[in-house]
TrEMBL record:
It is a multi-pass membrane protein. One of its GO terms (biological process) is L-leucine transport. Its main location: membrane. This is Branched-chain amino acid transport system carrier protein. It comes from the Bacteria. The keyword Acetylation does not apply. Keywords: Amino-acid transport, Cell membrane, Membrane, Transmembrane, Transmembrane helix, Transport. The chain crosses the membrane at residues 7-25, 37-61, 73-93, 120-138, 150-168, 194-213, 225-246, 281-306, 313-332, 338-358, 370-392, 412-432. Component of the transport system for branched-chain amino acids. GO terms for cellular component: plasma membrane. It is found in: Cell membrane. The lineage of its organism: Bacteria, Bacillati, Bacillota, Bacilli, Bacillales.
């Protein structure tokens, strides 16, 4: 496969990643981080760019999708965890978020204040949005491909234009850190990177890229890994540029538009300040169509997976189920949707990270499940209570003990138990002959 073709596949991977979460979180991070934007952005890039790149490479290394890796723990875990990931990136959070971000950036700024605060405009918009999603997801391949090829470069240019304008004629001075960013900007932004859902998106979309390589005649595992490193690097560079640009826009916007509830509102107001109503209209149209493309892709991917796991229900049936559920769930609004997703992502993200990292070294221990299990069980225990705490449910007898773990206050208390568990699994592994 030529370098040019591999570069195009890298752009396609970038297009798959560039969705609602990639757009709304960096501007708000910029507002909250203020003068600590640099250190905060490093933390965000680790979980928002570095780990998704590793996840993509893990899929290439495994030669299969998420369930291929998760089955190395246990077949039941493989199905259960894969379903949870698809539901999280799909109808529970990822798909509804495409509609709410489209509304926040593309519709709400143009409504009168008295109308924007009511619930019915969002309800009407989500109905229309998901009717279109259903219509196109039933036969998505050609149309989504065409829309993605046009709109992703346009969106990148729009963001670039906003970033350049914010540098040449800044909206204001960079503000002061807010909230947790006053005391722990790196770790706060590290966890904030979970909200992009890019690690679990990589685990879902990775098999799409593998199949693309196969269609181009790249069949050997070593050749696929080499091609994936190149394509993944292209996508990672693109994402990093987008995140840094949007973060800077947010950091310089505080004195003009004030601290906002979510990044969608930050970007909508900032575009109006920088380019006036004309800039807001261009941004709105581009965001709506880009999010619509992501919605179609996610509905299609989820429907495809669940129709294979539950063949009694057809692909078309699952398209309707996921789109209707997403339309209902989207009506809680963007801010509330993000708040609901935080506890769930705090629970499943550490498991996904540990699973990805172990998949690179499992040949060293013969892929024996005991190592995976010993690493994932303590990770799950800590992350479950992190998630409960994120939902304002404090199980004090347990959290008081967990608070003694290193980095617990930074919400990555699972890290040391995962490492210790993996080491114990390595010590025990000679006692187990079963290999996967």
């Amino acid at each position: 496969m030529s370098i040019q073709k591999n570069f195009v596949i890298g752009l396609m991977l970038f297009a798959l990643f560039l969705g609602a979460g990639n757009i709304i979180f960096p501007p708000l991070l910029g507002q909250m981080a203020g003068d600590d934007l640099f250190i905060s952005m490093i933390g965000f890039l680790i979980t928002g760019v570095g780990l998704p790149l590793l996840a993509i490479l893990a899929i290439a290394n495994a030669g299969g999708g998420l369930q291929t890796i998760a089955n190395r723990v246990n077949p039941v875990f493989g199905i259960a965890f894969t379903m949870i990931v698809y539901l999280a990136i799909g109808p529970f959070f990822g798909i509804p978020r495409t509609a709410t971000v489209s509304y926040e950036i593309g519709i709400a700024p143009f409504l009168p204040d008295t109308v924007a605060v009511s619930n019915w405009p969002l309800a009407v918009f989500t109905v229309v949005f998901f009717i279109i999603t259903i219509a196109l997801a039933l036969n998505p391949a050609k149309l989504v491909d065409r829309i993605g090829k046009v709109l992703t470069p346009v969106l990148f240019l729009v963001i670039g234009a906003l970033a350049v304008k914010s540098i040449v004629t800044p909206m204001g001075d960079i503000g002061q850190p807010q909230g947790d960013y006053l005391t722990k900007p790196f770790f706060r932004s590290f966890v904030e990177g979970y909200l992009t859902m890019d690690v679990i998106a990589a685990l879902v979309f990775g098999i799409v890229i593998i199949n693309t390589f196969k269609a181009e005649g790249v069949t050997g595992s070593r050749a696929q890994m080499k091609a994936m490193i190149f394509a993944g690097s292209i996508a990672a560079i693109g994402l990093a540029l987008v995140y840094i640009s949007l973060g800077y826009i947010g950091a310089t916007s505080t004195s003009v538009i004030g601290i906002q509830e979510n990044g969608g509102t930050v970007l909508a107001l900032a575009s109006k300040v920088l380019y006036g109503s004309y800039g807001s209209i261009i941004l709105a149209i581009t965001i709506i169509f880009a999010c619509l493309t992501t919605s179609i892709g996610l509905v299609s991917a989820c429907a495809q997976y669940f129709s294979e796991v539950m063949p009694r229900l057809s692909y078309k049936t699952f398209v309707f189920i996921f789109a209707i559920f997403s339309a209902l769930f989207a009506n809680v609004g963007l801010t509330q949707l993000i708040a609901i997703s935080i506890p769930v992502l705090l629970m499943i993200y550490p498991l996904a990270i540990v699973l990805v990292l172990l998949s690179f070294v499992d040949k060293w221990f013969g892929r024996k499940p005991v190592v995976y299990i010993m690493a994932l069980v303590p990770t799950a225990f800590v992350s479950i209570f992190d998630g409960l705490l994120g939902a304002s449910i404090d199980v004090k007898p347990v959290t008081s003990i967990l608070s003694n773990l290193p980095l617990y206050e930074q919400q990555i208390g699972w890290l040391v138990p995962a490492i210790v568990g993996a080491l114990i699994g390595l010590v025990l592994s000679p006692l187990f002959k079963k290999r996967i």
